Amino acid sequence: MLGAALRRIRRAQGRTLADVAVAARISMPYLSEIERGRKEASSEVLAAVCDALGVELADLLAAVVHDLTRVDAARVEGARAAGATVRPMPVRRAAAPPASGAGGAAVSVLSLAA
To answer: pTM (2 decimals)?
Structure first.
């Protein structure tokens, strides 16, 4: 999901893999693997890619939560149409102390409940 969101943002900006990889100082094949979900990005690489794309990490993660919520809604709808009783996957705020982001702004942490 994370890689798909990165790819969607990159394509919406009309940018190439090569362009973003150079700006993020990572190899183009590695960025491609991340976008396809075949490799996990470290926090440093993820920050570099977000910086290269000009997006905040929080906005990227919000897009991933949105995608997961949409996928889960489709799962629930399909199961209900088949007569199954299912519940949506709950999304809740994590019980973590407030963190400060850039400029001292509070940062919320979201997690998917199991």
So the answer is: 0.65
